[in-house]
Amino acid sequence: MIRNALGKTFRFLGYTVQYGCIAHCAFEYLGGVVVCSGPSMEPTIQNSDIVFSENLSRHFYCIRKGDIVIVKSPNDPKSNICKRVIGLEGDKVCTSNPSDFLKSHSYVPKGHVWLEGDNLGNSTDSRCYGPVPYGLIRGRICFKIWPLNDFGSLRASPNGHRFLDD
Which Pfam families does the record match to this protein (predicted)? Predict the structure, then answer.
């Protein structure tokens, strides 16, 4: 009887570890569901919107300008942030706020990206902490899941004029 109970317990633990490893690999390498919080990506992504983030693009260096990405926060490595890629390595970017009279520009260094929120007036982004290492990118947002009336692909950047093509 005890032997039978121990056998069932170990089988259960074995299956739990197996499926746990499969789930970990799926969420780490394929993608997952993310709940976004904060106003920095409004109007594209509202507070409490649920999106799907795929993680393969970061592994294959397929991140492009205009993509919305999930990134480990440069200010707090325990949290993730959601921002739009404005510039890739070697790109010239506007480093000043839209309200600044004098505009300043810089080049994104090798191995980094320039990130900004769509809500420029209420976003802590690369304008505050500078270029972000590519290695901090966790995934690229593909589409919005919730709310259902907004299900589907994401809107283009309301700040398209910030993309420089020099």
Answer: Peptidase_S26
H/E run at residue 16: helix 2-25
Other CB atoms within 10 A of residue 46 CB: 15
Its pTM stands at: 0.78
Helix (H, G, I), strand (E, B) or coil at 31: strand
d(CA 48, CA 97): 26
Antiparallel, parallel or unpaired: β 92-94 and 105-107: antiparallel
The residues carrying an active-site annotation are: 40, 83
Domains and CATH numbers, the chain: 32-163 (2.10.109.10)
Per the CB < 8 A criterion, the answer to whether 120 and 40 are in contact is no
**One pLDDT digit (tens) per residue for the chain, 166 residues:** 777 878 888 888 888 988 888 888 777 777 888 888 888 888 888 888 889 898 888 877 788 988 999 999 988 889 899 999 998 998 888 877 766 777 788 899 999 999 998 888 888 888 888 899 998 999 999 888 888 777 777 777 767 666 655 4
